[in-house]
Write a structure and sequence with these properties.
single chain; alpha+beta; YefM-like fold; 3-stranded mixed sheet; 4 helices; elongated
Length: about 90
């Protein structure tokens, strides 16, 4: 999947051009003073394509191995679930 870096100023001045490229399947990374801050991607992409784009930009890394099963870090006291405790805490 092709990917372009574009500054905010350039994006503002040529938005239609970059949207056309996005329709063709290219990903456009928006930068602010050289620092990536956002991305324009085709909305119809499936999860694998979006993950591949994230790996290409360095936003995600994957060794190819599945995660090992781990024990829970915290234990609950009582009969409430974690979700119920969160809802109570937010009220």
């Amino acid at each position: 999947m092709a990917q372009l870096l574009v500054s905010i100023r350039e994006l503002k001045s040529r938005l239609s051009h970059y949207l056309r490229l996005t329709r063709k399947g290219e990903s456009v990374v928006i930068t602010d003073r050289g620092v990536p801050i956002g991305r324009i991607v085709l909305i119809g992409q499936n999860l694998d394509q979006r993950l591949a784009a994230m790996r290409e930009t360095g936003l995600a890394q994957w060794s190819g191995h599945k995660l090992r099963h781990r024990r829970p870090v915290a234990k609950l006291r009582g009969r409430k679930t974690v979700a119920q405790l969160l809802v109570e805490d937010r009220e």
